[in-house]
Amino acid sequence: MKATIKENRELVPRYFTMTLSEMGDDFRGEPGQFVMIRGDWGSDPLLARPLSICRFLHEDGQIRIVYRVMGRGTRRLSEMKAGQTVDINGPLGNPFPRPDESRRVLLTAGAIGAPPLIALAGSMAVSPLLIIGGRTRNDVVFISDEIRELDIETIYVTEDGSYGQKGTAVTELARHVGGNDLVYACGPNRMLAEIARLSEEIGFEAHVSFEERMACGIGVCLGCAVRHANGTYVHVCKDGPVFNVTDIDWDRL
Ligand SMILES: Cc1cc2nc3c(=O)[nH]c(=O)nc-3n(C[C@H](O)[C@H](O)[C@H](O)COP(=O)(O)OP(=O)(O)OC[C@H]3O[C@@H](n4cnc5c(N)ncnc54)[C@H](O)[C@@H]3O)c2cc1C
Ligand code: FES
C-alpha cells in the first residue's frame, strides 16, 4: 500500500516524527503492531524497515510513527518530504494484550521503545504510569509532545542524570512496581531481560515488545528468531513482537 507523508519533522537530533495519510479505509491496526516501510529510493537499502505505530488517528485515516536515525534506511526516511509517498506493509505482528484496567498499569520504555507504548496509552480509558529511560536527555524528551497530548503521568530517567531521575528505566520500575501490577515494556533486549528477572522476583505480569532486526517482517526469512522458553524458536515478526516474559528463554537471547 502507498501512503502519503503529511509531515516529517525532526524532534531532537536523530529523532523524527512522521505522519502518514491516505492509509485506506481497511487499515485497522492495534497498539503493539508495526509496519514495514520504505521510500522510493532505489536499491540502497533494498529492504523495508520495521517501525511501530505510535498513534492511530483513525478519524483522519492517518497514523504517526516516531523513529530514530540508526543507519541507511532511517536516514533515507528522514530525508523524505511532505507530499512524497512511501510503501507500507502492515499492520503486522500481534498487538499488546488488552490491559485489565482494574489493575495498575506501568509502561516501561527504553528510549525509542516508547512509540508502541504511547499507542497503548492512547487506547486506555485509565491513565497508566509511563517510565521512560535513556542514556541522555534527547533519548527521553523526543517523545514529550505525545506524552503531553495524552496527559500521561511520566517518570523520566537518564543514565547521565541530564534529565529527570538518574538511573535506568528498570531501576525506576523496581522502585514503583508491585506484585499485582501489569507491566508493558519495549526497548533493547538487555532491558527486557532485566524486566523478566524483576518480574520473576516480584511476581508481576509483564508483556514485552522486541525490536529485533528484521528482513521480511512476515515470517519467511527466519532472520528474527528468538528462543522460546520451551526450547523451540519463535519469530519476532510473526509470533511477536509482543511476548509474555515467561515465553522467552532469556539466558539464550
Ligand atoms: C517490531 C519493531 C518495531 C520497531 N519500532 C521502531 C520505532 O517505532 N522507531 C524506531 O526508531 N525504530 C523502531 N524499530 C527499530 C528499527 O526497525 C531499526 O532501527 C531500523 O530498522 C534500522 O534501520 P537502518 O537502515 O536505519 O539501520 P541499519 O543500516 O540497518 O543499521 C544501522 C546500525 O543500527 C543497528 N541496528 C539496526 N536495527 C537495529 C535494531 N532493531 N536494534 C538494534 N540495533 C539495530 C545495526 O546493527 C547497525 O549497527 C523497530 C523494530 C522492530 C522489529
Ligand atoms: S523478519 Fe523474516 S522471519 Fe521475521
Q: Quick one: CATH class of the largest domain? A: Alpha Beta
Write the H/E string, N to C: EEEEEEHEEHEHHEEHEHEEEHE
Low-confidence stretches: none
How do the strands of the widest beta sheet line up side by side? 4-3-7-1-2-6-5
Number of strands: 16
Biggest sheet overview? 7 strands, antiparallel
Helix content: 10-25%
Examine the coordinates and then state which fold CATH places here, giving the name of the CATH topology of the largest domain. Rossmann fold
Mean pLDDT, all residues: 94
Strand content: 25-35%
What is the second-level CATH architecture of the largest domain? 3-Layer(aba) Sandwich
Considering the protein shown, what is the CATH homologous superfamily of the largest domain?
Answer: Nucleotide-binding domain of ferredoxin-NADP reductase (FNR) module
Cofactors, ions, other ligands: flavin-adenine dinucleotide, FE2/S2 (inorganic) cluster
End-to-end span in angstroms? 34 Å
Number of helices: 7
Report the principal-axis shape: globular
Q: How many whole angstroms does the radius of gyration measure?
A: 17 Å
SS-derived structural category: alpha/beta
Count of all domains: 2
